[in-house]
Amino acid sequence: MKECKLLIKYRVDGKLFTDDNYQNQHYVIEKNFSNNIVKLEISPKVEMELITLELSYNYEYEPESRFYINGYQSWTTSYEARIDDKQRGIGRVLKAIPFGKLLASTSGDYSFVDYPKKSGMFHSFTYTYITKSSANEICFYGSLNEKTGFTIFHADMNANKLKIVKDVEGVKISSSYELLNVIRIEGLYDGVFDKYFSTLGIAKPRINHLAGYTSWYNYFGNIDGKIILRDLDGLDRVKDIVNIFQIDDGYQPFIGEWTTKNEEKFPMGMKKIAAKVHKKGYLAGIWLAPFNVQRKSKLVQEHPDWFIKNEKGKPIIGCLGWGGAYVLDIELEPVREYIKGFFNEIANDWNFDMFKLDFLYSQCMLPRNGKSRGQIMCEAMEFLRECAGEKLILGCGVPLGPAFGLVDACRIGCDMDLQYLPKFYNKIHVNNEVPSVQNSMTSTIWRRHLNGRAFLNDPDVFFLRDTNLKFTLEQKKTLAKVNNLFGSVLFVSENIADYGDDALEIVKLAFAKPNAMIISVTCDDDKVYTIKYLQDGEQKKFSFDMKTGAEL
Fold first, then answer.
1. How many Cα atoms are found within 13 Å in the side-chain-facing hemisphere of 421?
2. Whole-model pTM?
């Protein structure tokens, strides 16, 4: 960790400077290397606006080494990459479309991180590891502080280089500031991650298993009270192994107007829905995109000054759904009070037990007010934890580092799609965040180390119905098996009352807590996965073809 080359970019009085020295006329950088931790703290002599910081190392990759890519946010595909792999950015088709890159960048890192077209060059957010030739050993690097900016690890496996980059764009400082705090750990896979989260001081999640229903993947926003109560009754067939019922998008009249009653679709109101869920003995969950407001909402008309704006003074688009949605600026006190208000009503009047919070990345799309993207995201997650109080939080669409220790569960892959095989937008590669069954399963497998350490992993839903779906029975079984082995939040979006006997048996097995310990995961060039695990004292193996969904 000691032998490295420094590069810092910054502005003073609007003028750009680049330097590789630890001190000059503008600053002094103190470096501290101890116990495999590297810390850098900058003391400015004048007011500075930071842009980026880099530490470059020589790293001798072994011929079979793999570099772990932890994607930008929870939807971003994450996996172990080999030297002949390429980390794909935005596809050529989208780049050729006017504003295509801007649209793709809404949910990804494409506006502030380069994607080289060359194989063997990768980047990973917050932490990474490099596999070693000895069985199940890794060399791990992880950030101990994302509050000062996202930490991005870059590998050039061709040139045997490893670079640690701090995204401090937009940070303005006039006093001491921690630039970097990174730990290096070597050892066996599980021991390394145990040590990392222990060093971070992250407590074990206060829950250990959720299984039940979410409404999104069958009806999407087209739900109403009759559908919800019918599907609630459908869970009676598996009531002994279900503990949560979650209502997704569609209960509210507009995105952002969460507590406005939807008389047409939910005339009884959400408080009575939650009471009926509780009467069944389940936790009641509800979906929110707490930072987003639909452009056609009256909230936009009444409070046009509440939203994050770009350099031209125009509100930014935080997500493309619902005809586009703006992003509430939590740096503004009236906005914070508004958000606290609807959380309080849903939690304490309606009496919901869990918030599924979505599109959270939108809060940190732009560095602003002298803060980096990472600082904004960390502060946003702390604010949401304050708003939710003791209620459970299921995070979604969120950079993972800032969510550590603040959410009870978190999505760790992109949205599922309604067909197993890739759709056209997967083939032209819109970005790494679009819905995809294979990408979701890939992230579920390779982000397994977060489960039970940072939060409970939510691998998204599995499917067992026969309508509105393009899955074979074998593909359904494979997805259910992967979710059960690697996840602790197990959801279906179907009326279980409609299941035949075979589907009913599969859902019972998939909802059950597996108590499996993963020994190893391997993936060959043909995307055949082999998973070895211990279950009830017996060593087992599960192999499947990711491209076809067939168990082998």
1. 4
2. 0.98
DSSP assigned state of 513:
-
Q: What single-letter amino acid sits at 57?
A: Y
Which pLDDT band, with edges at 50, 70 and 90, does 283 fall under?
very high
Q: What pLDDT sits at residue 411?
A: 98
The span from the CA of 483 to the CA of 471, in Å, is 16
Q: Kindly list the distances between the CA atom of residue 147 and the CA atoms of 225, 259, 264, 374, 398, in Å, as whole numbers in the listed order.
A: 42, 32, 44, 6, 15
- Measure the CA–CA gap between 534 and 424, rounded to whole angstroms: 38
Contact 514, 485 (CB under 8 A): yes
Local structure of 164: helix, strand or coil: strand
Please give the helix or strand (H or E) that residue 393 lies within, else none: strand 392-395
CB–CB of 82/66 below 8 Å? Answer: yes
Q: How many CB atoms lie within 10 A of CB 95?
A: 12
Q: What are phi and psi of 396, to 5 degrees?
A: -160, 140
Both tokens assigned to 163: 């670079």
pLDDT 10s digits, 304-340: 999 999 999 999 999 989 999 999 999 999 999 999 9
Query: Could you tell me which of 385, 386, 354, 360 has the C-alpha nearest to residue 373?
Result: 360
Structure tokens at 126: 């917050």
Helix (H, G, I), strand (E, B) or coil at 382: helix
